[in-house]
Write a structure and sequence with these properties.
This protein is of the alpha/beta class. The chain folds into 4 domains: about 250 residues, Rossmann fold (3-Layer(aba) Sandwich), CATH 3.40.50; about 100 residues, no CATH class; about 90 residues, Arc Repressor Mutant, subunit A, CATH 1.10.10; about 140 residues, no CATH class. About 45% of the residues lie in helices and about 10% in strands. The protein has 30 helices and 18 strands. A hairpin with a 2-residue loop joins strand 4 and strand 5. Helix 28 crosses helix 30. The chain is globular, with a radius of gyration of 33 Å. The termini are far apart. Keywords: Repeat. This is Nacht and wd40 domain-containing protein. It holds the Pfam family NPHP3_N.
Length: about 725
C-alpha cells in the first residue's frame, strides 16, 4: 500500500460533533520507506494502557452509537442474506474487500427500498469484521441514536480502539512496518447512508471521505457504502475527484434476484409446514408452484415483499392457508389498474386485519414519530417506544399495547420485555404510513413537535404527581428521578413551544403538587431547586389564564413564601443545619450548592461545625426529607426536627457576605455573637439586614444545636467543635 512512498504525511480530516462538546482528533501516518510512523495531535493517547487512554475510550463510548454496530443487541435479529442467495453480489464484494491491489477505494452499492442492501452489509460485516473490515456504522432513521452524523466518528474510533480490535495493539506504537500494516483490517462499512436524516450531513460525510482518499498520498482506509440512490447522494458521488476511486453496483430486478426470492420463499414455506399444526397435513404441493410464481412476480426483486409475506402467513391467529389465500386474492381484486404498488397493497391487507383501527393508529402514530431529545440531553435516552412507555403516554392498560398490535408482527418487532422498544422492521412501512397516496385510509403521519411534547409533558407531570396520594413518603418511586430532569430539560428547551395545550396537559398541571414531588426528587437527586426555572414556569403558566390557576396557586406560595423542611432523626442536627443553608442558596440562585472557602469557614465558626463539602454532597441522596408548606401544622414523629426556608433569609445572607472581606466577616461574627453593631460603622451592612441576621441565626442555632447555648467564640478546629 505504501511501497516506494517517502517523506509523506497522511492526515485525517474528520470532525465529530458531540452535542455541546466538539472533539477534533488529528491522527497521521508518516511514511518513510517501508516504515509507517504514527503521529498524534490530540485525540487518543499513544499508550492505550495508560489512564488517559482509558478516559479517552470511556469518552468515545459515551459519544458513540452502540446500536450502529453490526452486532448490537438493539438490531438483533439483524437482516441477513438467506443461505444460498445473493451469491454473485456477495462474491463480487468479497473479492473487492479482500483485494490488496485495487484502483477503487470506495465501493457504492445502491438500490431501491427493500432490495436487501442491509442484509448484504450485515452478511459481509459478520464475515470480514476483525479480518478485513475494521469498523461499521448502520444508519437508521427509526433510531434516534444512529440517524445523524454526530456519533459517526466516535463510533468508528471506538471500534478501532476497543478491546479485541486487531488495530488496538498497533495504534500506540511509534512505528509499524508497512508489510504488517497492510495485513490489518482497513475497510469501513457504512450502511443506510440515506437514513441519515439530514441531507447536508450525507453530503458532508462523503466529502470527508473524498478528501483523504483522493489526496496524492493515500490513507490506508477504503469504504464500502450502501444506500438508496437519492439525488443528493448521487450528486456527491458525481464529484470529479471520485471518478478514479469509485466503483458502483446497482441492485436491480434481475434473473438472479428472481431465483433468490423463489429459493427464499420455497425454503420458508417448507419451514412453516414443519412447525405449524395447521399445515401438518399439507404436502410439498402447498403452496402451489403457481402461487409461488405469482408471489415472486409481485416481489419484483424486493426481498422486503417476500419476507413480509412469510411473516404475515406465519400466524397462529388464523390458518396459514387462509392468510396466503388472502394475499393472493388482493392482487386479483385490485387488478392492474390499482393506484397502489404491490408492496402497498400488502401493507393495506396487513392493516385491514387489525381490530380497533383507531387504537392501532394512535400507537402507530407514536411509533413513526422520532423521539426528539431537547438540547441533546442524555437523560432522554430511554425506551420511549416500549410497550410500557407507549401505554403510559396513551393512557392504555397494562398489556393493551401488545394486544392492539398482535396482528402486526409482520411489520413490527414486538420485544419480549415490555420495557424494550418496539421497532418497525423496515423503513418502507414507515414511508407507506406517512404517504397518503400510498396508505389511503390508513394514513398515519408523525406527530408535530407540539403534539408530541404535549403528550410527553402530560406523562411526566402525572409521574411527578404520583407521590401526592402517598405523602408523607413511606415508599419512594424512582420514576421521579427520570421524570423531573426530562420535564425540566423539555421546558427549558428554546425550541419547545407548547402553544395551545391539550385538556390532558391542563389536568396534569392542576394535579401537580410541589411539596411531595420535591421531597421525592431530593431523595434521589440531591438539592437543586432550579428556582429561576420555576419562576419562568410560573410566568408561562399564567399566560393561560384561568386554566392554570390551580397550578399557579400551588407554586406561588412555595416560591415566594418559602416552605418547611422536616429532617428525620438519622440526619444529625449539624448536618441538617448545613443542608438548610444549601437549600436556601439553591432556592435563591437555582444552581447546585457552591460555597467559597471564606463562607464555609464563617459558617463553621458560627456554628462550631466541621463538615467537608464532599461529605455533604455525597450525603444528599437517600434521605427522606419532608417538604411542607410554610404554614404547615403537621405533627412530626418523635426525633424529627423542622426548619423554615425562605427567600428572605438567603437574600439577606447573600447580600451581606458578598460585600465583605475577611476582616469584615470577623467583625460581623463578633456583632452576631456579642449582639453589638460595630459593623454598621463601616456602612457595609444595612441595619435591618444585621437585625434579621442576628434574629434568624440565633433562632436557627437554638433550634438545631440547643446544647450550644452561648455565642462565646471558640476556634472551629479546637476543643468544643461539633463534628459531623
Amino acid at each position: 500500500m505504501f511501497n516506494r512512498s517517502r517523506g509523506a504525511t497522511i492526515w485525517g480530516d474528520a470532525h465529530n460533533n458531540v452535542g455541546r462538546d466538539q472533539s477534533h482528533c488529528n491522527n497521521a501516518y508518516e511514511v518513510h520507506g517501508n516504515v509507517i510512523h504514527n503521529v498524534y495531535s490530540g485525540g487518543i493517547s499513544p499508550n492505550l494502557d495508560d489512564p488517559i487512554s482509558k478516559d479517552t475510550l470511556r469518552l468515545l463510548a459515551e459519544k458513540a452509537a452502540p446500536n450502529a454496530c453490526y452486532d448490537s443487541e438493539q438490531r438483533f435479529p439483524p437482516p441477513n442474506c438467506h443461505p444460498g442467495t445473493r451469491a454473485e453480489i456477495l462474491a463480487k464484494l468479497s473479492q473487492w474487500i479482500e483485494g490488496e491491489r485495487r484502483s477503487s477505494r470506495v465501493f457504492w452499492l445502491y438500490g431501491s427500498a427493500g432490495v436487501g442492501k442491509s442484509a448484504i452489509a450485515q452478511n459481509l460485516a459478520e464475515k470480514f469484521t476483525g479480518r478485513k473490515i475494521a469498523a461499521s456504522f448502520f444508519f437508521s432513521r427509526s433510531d434516534t441514536s444512529r440517524d445523524k452524523l454526530e456519533p459517526f466518528v466516535a463510533s468508528l474510533a471506538y471500534q478501532l480502539c476497543k478491546l479485541g480490535s486487531p488495530l488496538k495493539p498497533v495504534l500506540g506504537r511509534s512505528k509499524v512496518e508497512s508489510e504488517a500494516f497492510q495485513k490489518l483490517p482497513n475497510t469501513v462499512t457504512i450502511d443506510g447512508l440515506d437514513e441519515c436524516v439530514q441531507h447536508p450531513s450525507q453530503e458532508r460525510l462523503l466529502a470527508i471521505i473524498r478528501k483523504p482518499i483522493t489526496s496524492p498520498t493515500h490513507t490506508p482506509w477504503v469504504f464500502l457504502i450502501f444506500s438508496r440512490p437519492e439525488p443528493q447522494i448521487r450528486c456527491a458521488f458525481d464529484h470529479e475527484d471520485f471518478d478514479r476511486v469509485l466503483m458502483c453496483l446497482a441492485i436491480t430486478p434481475s434473473a438472479e434476484a428472481t431465483r433468490d426470492i423463489r429459493k427464499y420463499m420455497v425454503d420458508c414455506f417448507a419451514d412453516l409446514r414443519k412447525k405449524h399444526r395447521a399445515l401438518r397435513y399439507e404436502g410439498t404441493s402447498w403452496p402451489s408452484e403457481d402461487a409461488i410464481d405469482k408471489l415472486v412476480d409481485r416481489a419484483d426483486g424486493q426481498f422486503i415483499f417476500a419476507s413480509t409475506v412469510i411473516k404475515f402467513v406465519d400466524t397462529h391467529d388464523e390458518r396459514p392457508q387462509d392468510r396466503l389465500e388472502t394475499i393472493l386474492r388482493i392482487y386479483v381484486d385490485h387488478g392492474v389498474d390499482s393506484p397502489y404498488s404491490d408492496l402497498d397493497l400488502l401493507y393495506h391487507q396487513i392493516l385491514s386485519a387489525c381490530h380497533q383501527w383507531e387504537k392501532v393508529q394512535r400507537v402507530l402514530r407514536l411509533l413513526v414519530t422520532p423521539h426528539k431529545c431537547p438540547r441533546n440531553d442524555s437523560s432522554w435516552k430511554n425506551s420511549w417506544h416500549s410497550p410500557a412507555m407507549v401505554a403510559l403516554q396513551l393512557h392504555l392498560k397494562h398489556g393493551e399495547v401488545e394486544a392492539i398490535l398482535s396482528r402486526l408482527h409482520s411489520v413490527l418487532q414486538i420485544p419480549e420485555y415490555n420495557t424494550d422498544n418496539i421497532h418497525i422492521t423496515h423503513a418502507s412501512f414507515t414511508e407507506f404510513l406517512s404517504d397518503p397516496n400510498c396508505s389511503g385510509k390508513y394514513h398515519t403521519p408523525e406527530m408535530s413537535k407540539l403534539e408530541y411534547y404535549d403528550l410527553v409533558a402530560t406523562l411526566l407531570l402525572h409521574t411527578l404527581s404520583t407521590m401526592k396520594v402517598h405523602y408523607p413518603l413511606y415508599q419512594l418511586q424512582s420514576e421521579v428521578t427520570t421524570a423531573f430532569p426530562l420535564w425540566n430539560s423539555m421546558l427549558r428547551d428554546q425550541d419547545t413551544d407548547f402553544g395551545l395545550m391539550s385538556a390532558h396537559l391542563f389536568a396534569a398541571l392542576s394535579c401537580f403538587d410541589p411539596y411531595s414531588f420535591l421531597s421525592t426528587y431530593i431523595f434521589f437527586q440531591g438539592i437543586n431547586l432550579h428556582s429561576p426555572f420555576w419562576r419562568d414556569t410560573i410566568k408561562w403558566a399564567k399566560s393561560f389564564g384561568e386554566s392554570t390557576l390551580q397550578f399557579v396557586g400551588a407554586w406561588e406560595p412555595f416560591l415566594w413564601g418559602g416552605f418547611c423542611v422536616a429532617f428525620p432523626p438519622k440526619i444529625s442536627k449539624q448536618l441538617a443545619l448545613e443542608w438548610t443553608f444549601h437549600l436556601e442558596e439553591s432556592f435563591l440562585n437555582g444552581y447546585t450548592y457552591h460555597v467559597d472557602t471564606s463562607r464555609k469557614i464563617f459558617l463553621q465558626r458560627l456554628y462550631f461545625v466541621i463538615v467537608e463539602v464532599s461529605t455533604i454532597i455525597s450525603s444528599w441522596g437517600g434521605h427522606t426529607l419532608l417538604i411542607l408548606p410554610a404554614d404547615s401544622h403537621m405533627i412530626l414523629p418523635e426525633g424529627w426536627h423542622m426548619t423554615h426556608i425562605t427567600k428572605h433569609n438567603e437574600e439577606v445572607f447573600h447580600r451581606v457576605l458578598n460585600v465583605m472581606g475577611q476582616d469584615d466577616m470577623e467583625l460581623l461574627l463578633d456583632d452576631i455573637q456579642m449582639d453589638t453593631c460595630e459593623i454598621l460603622i463601616r456602612k457595609l451592612v444595612r441595619e435591618d439586614d444585621l437585625a434579621h441576621l442576628k434574629s434568624f441565626l440565633k433562632e436557627r442555632r437554638k433550634e438545631v444545636i440547643p446544647q450550644a447555648n452561648d455565642w462565646l467564640y471558640r476556634p472551629f478546629s479546637g476543643e468544643g467543635a461539633l463534628t459531623v
